[in-house]
């Protein structure tokens, strides 16, 4: 991931080949392709992990947890993908995606997948629709807002803390809507 | 749109050319390209109109309207894109998109654009973030749910009515989340 982002940033996403990424990461090409379908997937591999963490976090919440408490569990589980040592990669990743419409499309679909995974996990806990869908969208919005803060070099808080704050802010905002 | 969907359904999206769509619609190719960048855009042209209708609907809400009342105005404005005479196209369109990952990506990005347009329009009314983002996501979720009912041949209600019901259901569900 770091090798790919360094190259994308230095010479452009379009000009970077899989061979260059593999070489910089100290992998041969076949090892690269065992982990990633193509260079685009290097940017989105964490998304598949996240989807599973969201689902597992919701499933692991106590039986008495409200839908939003279960979503808080999903966001806490997601923090595993945001170690402090990789925080400097976040703004680079955002910049590459922002510059390429086809990467934005992939990002949008991955986010839709987050909501679908959270919705299914909430339904499996017995949360009816549309409450499950709504809690999931709220969770994805909290995740996106925490993610934006995480990518801001001026921000020093852990992802876990950012996600917690973000969900609380959304909960407070929800009572001002009608 | 009908010409394109008929061809996509009959012979497959991948096997259909712009020339065939134009011929069936009684257009020459240059007229086609004045309206659509490529065959993919035939499926998504309404999305750009919708984005504007959402923004205009929110802007046109009375000054005293709550964020969700303004969102209801956005959904009511969107009904213009869902005339009863074109209802039979909706399941065809969904089937084509469901069968093509690259069309799903485009669809996901367009939906992200809906939320962004609604958020900006709400902020322009003085709704602070994250309330504006949250109301917008709720609006997009209501829109998607109404859209799914609209594409169900068993459903007979107008889009306007479906959107109104969907938003009310989400509002009722929101108080069950925590």
Number of beta-strand segments of chain A = 0
Which assembly state applies to the chains in this document?
homodimer
Largest sheet of chain A: none
Shape of chain A: elongated
Radius of gyration of chain A: 18 Å
Terminal Cα span of chain A = 44 Å
Please name the two chains that share the biggest interface, counting residues whose Cβ lies under 8 Å from a Cβ on the partner chain.
A-B, 32 and 32 residues
- The secondary structure category of chain A is mainly alpha
Helical stretch count of chain A? 9
Mean pLDDT of chain A: 93
Order of helix and strand elements from N to C terminus of chain A: HHHHHHHHH
The percent range for helix content of chain A is: over 70%
Strand content of chain A: under 5%
Q: List low-confidence stretches of chain A.
A: none
Characterization of the model:
The first copy, chain A, is an all-alpha fold and 178 residues long. The first copy, chain A, contains 9 helices and no strands. Chain A has helices at 2-11, 18-25, 29-35, 39-59, 67-78, 89-98, 101-124, 131-150, 159-174. The longest helix of chain A has 24 residues, at 101-124. Chains A and B meet through α5, α7, α8 and α9 of A and α5, α7, α8 and α9 of B.
């Amino acid at each position: 991931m770091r090798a790919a982002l360094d190259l994308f940033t230095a010479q452009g996403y379009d000009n970077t080949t899989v061979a260059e990424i593999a070489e910089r990461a100290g992998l041969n090409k076949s090892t690269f392709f065992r982990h990633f379908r193509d260079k685009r997937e290097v940017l989105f591999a964490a998304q598949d992990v996240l989807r599973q963490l969201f689902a597992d976090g919701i499933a692991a919440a106590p039986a008495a947890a409200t839908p939003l408490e279960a979503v808080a569990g999903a966001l806490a589980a997601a923090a595993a993908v945001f170690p402090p040592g990789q925080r400097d990669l976040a703004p680079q990743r955002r910049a590459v995606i922002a510059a390429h419409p086809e990467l934005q499309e992939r990002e949008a679909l991955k986010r839709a997948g987050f909501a679908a995974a959270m919705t299914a996990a909430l339904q499996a806990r017995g949360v009816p629709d549309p409450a499950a869908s709504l809690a999931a969208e709220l969770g994805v919005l909290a995740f996106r807002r925490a993610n934006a803060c995480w990518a801001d070099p001026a921000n020093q808080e852990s992802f876990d803390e950012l996600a917690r704050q973000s969900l609380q802010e959304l909960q407070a905002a929800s009572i001002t809507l009608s």
